[in-house]
């Protein structure tokens, strides 16, 4: 089985240069979907003390959403107030195929700092289960629907273990938001974005410019407000996220831009953002956009620190949301609708 999965990984790597491999890739994915169906997979909790070291090593190496900082960081993620689960196949009993990290917290977390602050010991009555990282370990299983089943299986198990849970949500990255923003603001001519699109309205633009002056960041002559915004966000020496004068002005600007990116930017009728596409197709709701939620170097480099809560409701709402997604609709909360006004 491992050899077949590895072969498909090679096929996927080669097919960009040889389109004749597309059919082989499609057929292999269909067969692997049968072999790795949800009913066959075993769900296991991964802990620091009882899980074999080889599996923990895989978890540490394959964590890509929030790279591990230290051994203590790993212990924290597998310790009290947290849960880590993985799917295993009978033919690959020592290799997690996909794994997910979850935090048990009092309310829906809006920042990674909240997750760090509210975990460390198990709580008897957590109100929210926050999925903050999901990773696949097998490139050869790309396109095989494992993550969807994993989230729902884990949610069901947690609901049994903690009857107090009434909220199941994610705290998800927006990995391509910064790239989209820079591409958008570099466009010229008829494709160039308007100031209204970037800033939301003139009042927000004027507030940003005033705050730049308060923070001693002068607007160079003949520089447009949009160009100035790009300069402020991209200047590594400036460190806008450390300037309180700027944060109040940048919060609504970046939050509204993230909403436009997640809801309005589509390809073939589906969101261009891969994380959003994954959760919305699973039946989640785009619930809340969080400013400065990930204050790490990677967080700033990918999304200016923005993260998103996707909310998983009851089985009926999940089914309804999935159907809406299939029909080309992005299901959003009232708070997100307000950002798009």
Named at the architecture level, the CATH assignment of the largest domain is 3-Layer(aba) Sandwich
Total domain units = 2
The counted number of beta strands is 10
Low-confidence stretches: none
Indicate the percent of residues in helices.
40-55%
Listing every helix as H and every strand as E from the N terminus to the C terminus, the arrangement reads HHEHHEEHEHEEHHHHHEEHEHEHH
Shape category: globular
Gyration radius from CA atoms, angstroms: 22 Å
**Approximate strand percentage:** 5-15%
Characterization of the model:
One of its GO terms (cellular component) is peroxisomal matrix. GO terms for molecular function: malonyl-CoA decarboxylase activity. Residues 39-312 form the Malonyl-CoA decarboxylase C-terminal domain. It comes from Triparma columacea. One of its GO terms (biological process) is acetyl-CoA biosynthetic process. This protein is an alpha+beta fold and 341 residues long. It folds into two domains: 2-170, Aminopeptidase (3-Layer(aba) Sandwich), CATH 3.40.630; 177-340, Aminopeptidase (3-Layer(aba) Sandwich). 47% of the residues lie in helices and 15% in strands. The chain has 15 helices and ten strands. It has helices spanning 2-14, 22-35, 53-62, 71-77, 112-118, 147-161, 177-186, 195-199, 202-214, 225-234, 244-264, 274-281, 297-303, 315-326, 334-340; strands at residues 42-45, 82-88, 98-105, 128-136, 167-170, 172-173, 266-267, 270-271, 285-290, 307-312. Strands 1, 2, 3, 4, 5, 6, 9 and 10 form an eight-stranded mixed sheet that branches. The chain has a two-stranded antiparallel ribbon with strand order 7-8. β7 (266-267) and β8 form a beta hairpin. The radius of gyration is 22 Å and the shape is globular. The N and C termini lie far apart (51 Å).
């Amino acid at each position: 089985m491992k050899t077949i999965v590895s072969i498909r990984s090679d096929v996927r790597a080669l097919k960009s240069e040889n389109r004749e491999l597309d059919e082989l890739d499609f057929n292999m994915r269909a067969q692997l979907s049968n072999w790795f169906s949800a009913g066959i997979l075993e769900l296991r909790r991964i802990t620091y003390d009882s899980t074999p070291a080889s599996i923990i090593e895989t978890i540490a190496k394959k964590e890509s959403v929030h790279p591990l900082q230290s051994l203590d960081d790993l212990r924290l993620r597998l310790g009290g107030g947290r849960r880590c689960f993985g799917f295993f196949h009978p033919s690959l009993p020592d290799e997690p195929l996909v794994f997910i990290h979850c935090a048990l917290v009092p309310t829906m977390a809006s920042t990674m700092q909240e997750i760090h602050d509210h975990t460390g010991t198990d709580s008897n009555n957590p109100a929210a289960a926050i999925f903050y990282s999901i990773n696949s370990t097998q490139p050869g299983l790309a396109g095989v629907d494992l993550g969807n089943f994993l989230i729902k299986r884990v949610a069901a198990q947690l609901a049994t273990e903690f009857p107090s849970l009434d909220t199941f949500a994610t705290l998800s990255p927006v990995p391509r938001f910064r790239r989209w923003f820079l591409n958008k603001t570099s466009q010229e001519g008829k494709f160039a974005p308007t100031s209204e699109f970037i800033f939301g309205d003139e009042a927000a633009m004027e507030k940003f410019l005033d705050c730049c002056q308060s923070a001693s960041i002068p607007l160079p002559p003949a520089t447009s407000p949009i160009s100035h915004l790009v300069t402020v966000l991209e200047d590594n020496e400036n460190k806008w996220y450390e300037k309180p004068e700027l944060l109040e002005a940048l919060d609504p600007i970046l939050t509204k831009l993230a909403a436009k990116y997640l809801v309005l930017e589509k390809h073939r009728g589906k969101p261009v953002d891969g994380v959003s596409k994954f959760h919305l197709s699973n039946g989640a709701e785009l619930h809340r956009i969080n400013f400065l939620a990930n204050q790490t170097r990677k967080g700033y480099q990918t999304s200016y620190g923005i993260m998103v809560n996707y909310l998983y409701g009851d089985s009926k709402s999940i089914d309804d949301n999935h159907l809406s997604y299939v029909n080309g609709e992005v299901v959003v909360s009232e708070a997100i609708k307000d950002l798009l006004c």
